[in-house]
UniProtKB/TrEMBL annotation:
Its cofactor is [4Fe-4S] cluster; Mo-bis(molybdopterin guanine dinucleotide). Keywords: 4Fe-4S, Iron, Iron-sulfur, Metal-binding, Molybdenum, Oxidoreductase, Signal. This is Formate dehydrogenase subunit alpha. GO terms for biological process: anaerobic respiration. Residues 8-64 form the 4Fe-4S Mo/W bis-MGD-type domain. It is found in: Cell envelope. GO terms for molecular function: 4 iron, 4 sulfur cluster binding; electron transfer activity; molybdenum ion binding; molybdopterin cofactor binding; oxidoreductase activity. Belongs to the prokaryotic molybdopterin-containing oxidoreductase family.
Length: 751
């Protein structure tokens, strides 16, 4: 470009059209986004964008973008100013808050928020005084999160997109990546090409993905569990299971085996429609080609038995021992670009950021992070009960408007609904939703585009459309489906009169009277909160899943270093290496200064259990390190296996010969705490110096304990309160994450 027209600047950003997280290299001239290339150096992109990714520039500039705030008056859309919009919406909300209570408004957030906006959105409806908020994850992969987290700990993809080409076989079920995640599909095809990896596709429909399959398994919709059990029948029948892996690491496989025994080839064929001969072939292929990856998408999740499906997929991986290794694992392709991040950051009706539950301990934890008085925050809610009770999921918000519900305080119905980056067309029962919309006092849609939510009802008044900027008009972090946080740079300023989500949240919080508290430690200039301060704030609170080590500075540097524009260097390396990944996949424990590199593959099973390797079998894993004896484990709330839990712990210690190191007091402490799960706090406050029993997930509470028993049925570290005066103190106390080598040890339990 000539000096007169301005040089072209290259800005690295991240595609917004699916969860793969491909890099977009934007060409910007005089502040205008004039061209686009794929990040050819990216280990995700493989030098390409798919058709969706190639269209992001046009999409961001779309003619149908909302250009200014608009209000429906007597059935006609009327242009209004931002001041008028915020004032009118705010006044109505304040009236609703006063007369009907905070639960009479619903805050429907979005997987299109970046992490900082998602976090602020959750904080926003907490400060408003309600848990009535949710986002798209509820209707796509919530069954995955429940199924996978309850099987082995984290409700997320275990490996990375670019690890798939290390797989020796691919087992794809309930997904169509050739259309939905096309660049991820390239990694699958690469595995096929370079490893001769057999590609098995199970789907009731013959899809474009199935067209690439070596083995296409057509089965009856909804019979996934039967299909998996049918495959496992052949695995067990022929002794193809990984016995050593199961013996060391998997608890409960005997019960599964007993169940699978009922799924004979004849029975499986009767239920699923798949002949036994084909299932035997599939089982043999998987057994002969390990590690294989298991990939699923919403064909597996959007069922009333979606949890069972996703757990069955996990069990297949455990039986054949392919979890916790490169090329293996369960790779769950999510939908929107930040559906993982928005879930992690708590845009849900039943959790706070970091999967902290809604118990008082969680609220206290976040009150400390937010630097607000817990009692003040509690006062924002209709009552403590409402504060600690789940809100209503998005799939049922309209019931709330149509009928008086117990979730609504002061016996009133839902009166205001805010669709913030949620189009509504992904939901079922649209006629009910339409009816509910028409009953509301106020409907607010915040979006770059007029969505279906804006037009599907026949309201005459009280509907507002607020133009939001796209994700290319701001910056912040985004978490791809593979848990990797990347920094997405702003490409151009918000178009027309649109504003970024965080600016709109600030304006509304100011009008509603809680901006000073909500943005206490976040710098705000010209009504725009500083995104980097938001990242730093959630870094201080997200101990549970390791969102603590990804500071904005680190993410920016990481992106810049990994995405070099230096073609020569990259070519000398022969392109992106297998181990390359963008950003910092969680968990990245500790503080940014500690430099934890992130975790591309969850659940490292490379070491035997006795050496601290992952143990799915144990309620507790135990690890020795010098004089330190560390034990860690988990059991899910409500699972059967919590019975016998202290016995198991001691058995585990004995088995490893480490029980001898325990003093009588320590033994008693383990037995006492493990035996009394209702009163952890009291037990721990007994001043135990060498043994700490963790009821939460954060690795920092026990910096000085000699023995750590770590349990996370509910990640509310209530017992930690006496120890946990200031996070910063603990961090200062803490040697390094690497020194301690803490593992979270998930387990398997029966459905
Ligand atoms: Fe964008 Fe997904 Fe296509 Fe990559 S695969 S270019 S992230 S839509």
């Amino acid at each position: 470009a000539s000096a007169a027209t301005g040089d072209i600047k290259l800005v690295k950003s991240v595609c917004t059209h699916c969860s793969v997280g491909c890099t977009v290299i934007a060409e910007v001239q005089n502040g205008v986004w004039v061209g686009q290339e794929p990040g050819w150096d990216s280990p995700f992109n493989l030098g390409a964008h798919c058709a969706k990714g190639a269209s992001v520039r046009e999409h961001a500039h779309g003619e149908r973008r909302l250009k200014h705030p608009t209000k429906m008056v007597d059935g006609k859309w009327t242009k209004i100013s931002w001041d008028q919009a915020i004032n009118e919406i705010g006044d109505k909300l304040l009236e609703i808050y006063e007369t009907s209570g905070p639960d009479s408004a619903y805050w429907l957030g979005s997987a299109k928020h970046n992490n900082e906006q998602a976090y602020l959105f959750r904080k926003f409806y907490a400060f408003w005084g309600s848990n009535n908020g949710d986002h798209q994850a509820r209707i796509c992969h919530s069954t995955t999160v429940a199924g996978v987290a309850n099987t082995w700990g984290y409700g997320a993809m275990t490996n990375s997109y670019n690890d798939i080409h290390n797989s020796r076989a691919i087992f794809q079920i309930g997904g169509n990546p050739a259309e939905a995640h096309p660049v991820a599909m390239q990694h699958m095809l690469k595995a096929k090409e370079q490893n001769n990896a057999p590609f098995i596709v199970c789907d009731p429909r013959f899809t474009r993905t199935a067209a690439h399959a070596d083995e296409y398994v057509r089965f009856r919709p909804g019979t996934d569990v039967g299909l998996i059990w049918g495959i496992l029948w052949h695995v067990f029948e022929n002794g193809w299971e990984d016995k050593e892996f199961i013996r060391q690491r998997v608890w409960g496989m005997d019960q599964i085996k007993a169940e699978v025994a009922k799924w004979t080839p004849e029975e499986t064929e009767r239920v699923t429609g798949v002949p036994g001969s084909q299932l035997k072939r599939v089982a043999r292929t998987l057994a002969n080609n390990r590690p294989f990856t298991i990939i699923w998408c919403m064909g597996g999740t959007q069922h009333t038995n979606g949890n069972n499906n996703t757990r069955a997929y996990c069990v297949l991986g455990l039986a054949l021992g392919v979890v916790g290794t490169q090329g293996g694992g369960t790779n769950i392709f999510r939908g929107h670009d930040n559906v993982q991040g928005a879930t992690d950051l708590g845009v849900l009706c039943h959790t706070l950021p970091g999967y902290y539950g809604l118990k008082a301990g969680s609220w206290k934890h976040w009150s400390r992070v937010w630097d607000v008085d817990y009692e003040w925050l509690k006062g924002r809610f209709a009552s403590k009960d409402f504060m600690e009770k789940s809100g209503v999921p998005v799939s049922r918000w309209f019931d709330l408007a149509l009928e008086a519900k117990e979730n609504i305080d002061q016996n009133d119905n839902l009166r205001a609904m805010v669709f913030w980056g949620h189009a509504a067309n992904s939901q079922t029962r649209l006629p009910d939703m339409k009816k509910a919309m028409e009953k509301l006092d106020m409907l607010v849609i915040v979006d770059p585009y007029p969505t279906m939510a804006a037009v599907m009802n026949d309201r005459k008044d009280g509907t507002y459309l607020l133009p939001a900027a796209t994700q290319f008009e701001t910056h912040g972090s985004v978490t791809a489906s593979n848990r990797s946080l990347q920094w997405r740079d702003k490409i151009f300023d918000p178009l027309f009169e649109s504003k970024t989500d965080h600016e709109i949240m600030y304006l509304l919080a100011k009008k509603l009277g809680f901006a000073d508290e909500m943005f206490k430690n976040i710098k705000v200039e010209n009504d725009i909160p500083l995104i980097e301060d938001v990242t730093r704030e959630f870094n201080r609170g997200m101990w549970t899943i390791g969102y603590t080590g990804q500071s904005p500075e680190r993410l920016k540097t990481h992106m810049a270093n990994q995405h070099t524009f230096d073609k020569t260097t990259l070519q000398a390396r022969g392109g992106p290496a297998d181990g390359d990944y963008y950003g910092l996949p969680w968990p990245s424990w500790g503080t940014a200064e500690m430099g934890h590199p992130g975790t591309p593959v969850l659940y490292d099973t490379s070491k035997p259990v006795a050496e601290g390797g992952l143990c799915f079998r144990a309620r507790f894993g135990v690890e020795r390190e010098g004089d330190n004896l560390l034990a860690e484990g988990s059991y899910p709330v409500g699972s059967e296996i919590k019975d016998g839990y202290p016995e198991f712990t001691m058995a585990m210690l004995k088995k490893l010969g480490w029980d001898k190191d325990l003093t009588a007091d320590e033994k008693a402490a383990i037995e006492k705490v493990a035996g009394d799960k209702t009163n952890w706090k009291t037990d721990l406050s007994g001043g135990i110096q060498r043994v700490a029993i963790k009821h939460g997930c954060a690795p920092f509470g026990n910096a000085k304990a000699r023995t750590v028993v770590w349990n996370f049925p509910d990640p509310v570290p209530t017992h930690r309160e006496p120890l946990y005066t200031s996070r910063r103190d603990l961090v200062a106390d803490y040697p390094t994450y690497e020194d301690r080598k803490m593992y979270r040890l998930p387990i398997l339990f029966k459905s």
